[in-house]
Every structure is written in structure tokens, then in C-alpha cells.
Amino acid sequence: MDSNFDEVYERLKRTTNAVIDSWGNEGNKPIVLDKNRGSVHCAEWLREINPDFKMIVTVRDLRDIFTSIEKQHRKTLMLNHPDGMNHNIVDARASALFAENGIIGTPLKGIYNLGDIPNIMKNVFIWRYEDFILDPKKTTDIVFDFLGVDVCDIDFNNIVQSTNESDSYYNMKYIHKIKNSVEKPTSELPISPRILNHITNNKDLKWFYEQYYPETIEGKSSNAFCISANVTTTCSS
Q1: Taking the C-alpha atoms of 61, 62, 64 and 66 in order, what is their torsion angle to the nearest 10 degrees?
Q2: By CB distance 3.0 to 4.6 Å, which of 17, 178, 190, 228 could disulfide with 233?
Q3: CA distance 10 to 125
Q4: pTM for the full model?
Q5: Domains within the chain, CATH numbers bracketed
Q6: Bridge-based pairing state of the strands 225-229 and 232-236
Q7: Which strands make up the sheet holding 55-59, listed edge to edge?
Q8: How far apart are CA 94 and CA 104, in angstroms?
């Protein structure tokens, strides 16, 4: 590297790309999707080896994410959380989940970091969970357009799970079983209003709601359909 840095550096990029191409080439498909919540931390590095990479980042109202995790935890109270958090104190679980190294806090930090990388958002699509539930076809068609592929018909009432995860590794706290149809969650879990209000009023999380859920802010419409891509959020009632 001291005597011929530029050539060695390009060799590193070629080698990395070769490994990625080889790993995802079993099906000889033109597009390969890799699912990992840690990928959002690698956006700048990905652009270095592939300037045309595309990343889909799914987001959801943080209160609903916490509620979903709590719901599963209360179904598995006999099993401790594998993340070292306090098993019996709700507030302590919330603090641990939203901490910088928590299950929620870690990817949030990665999403926040996207705003500090110049021109990276042209490679990123922010996909809101609520928009997908409201109109699955509309949102997926927009994703297809972002990816530059032809729109295909998807039967949202006949979804087949093709993946298998080792949920026992995390003591069944974060299960990966999916429903066979897209539908809005109906069951509500009693969560302390104090904790939910703390999530939306937390100054460290204000950016998330301002950027991706402006309708939750006082004075905004609460029945908006928002597609957020390339950092620009547009909402229409």
C-alpha cells in the first residue's frame, strides 16, 4: 500500500465485489436482495464498492415497534431476554431497547447517520410500514420503480413464507413467522401511556417523527398517506 496505494485500493474493491457477486449468484438472477438490519450502517462503504447500490429501509412508528416487542415478551415471560436487559421492569426494557446499542436504538442510529452522508439518499428508499398496510400494491409499485424493475402482480392474500430463522437463539423474543395475508394488526396491548408519550416526546427521537411521521406532530393530519424516499417526505390526506 505504501508504494502503490491506488492500485491496491482498487484491487480491494474488485475483490470485495467478486465475493458479493459469487455469494448471491446461485440463482443467476439480475437482482439479489440481502436482508440485514445492520446494512444501514454500511451505506457509505457500499457506495464505495458499488456506486449504483440500492437500499430499502423499512420504518415503523416507534411506539408500535416497542408494543410489538412487549407483546411477544409477555407471551414468553418464562424466558429471559437474551440482550441483558432487566426482565421484569417495563421502563428498563424500553430504555434498553432504545439505547444506542439496543435492538431499536442501533438501527435508528444507522438511519440517523444517513442524513450525514452527502448524496446517499438517492440510493435509499424509506418504506413506511403503515403505508404498506394501507395500500400494499401502491407502495410495492413505488418500490419496483425505485429498483428499476418491471411491476409484477403480488397476491397479498396468499403470501408464502420461504425463509426459516432460528428464533430460539433469541429466546423466542423476536419471531420471524409471517402471516399469509397483509392486514392491519388488530390486537392492542395495554402499554403505559407514560412510556408511549416518552417515546414521541424524547428529544433524541424528535428527528425520526419530524422526518418520517410528520402527521403525528401537533397540527398535522393524522390520516395522511406518506411515501418517504430520498429524504423528502410528501404527505396527502
Answers
A1: 170
A2: 228
A3: 28
A4: 0.86
A5: 33-236 (3.40.50)
A6: antiparallel
A7: 55-59, 124-128, 225-229, 232-236
A8: 9
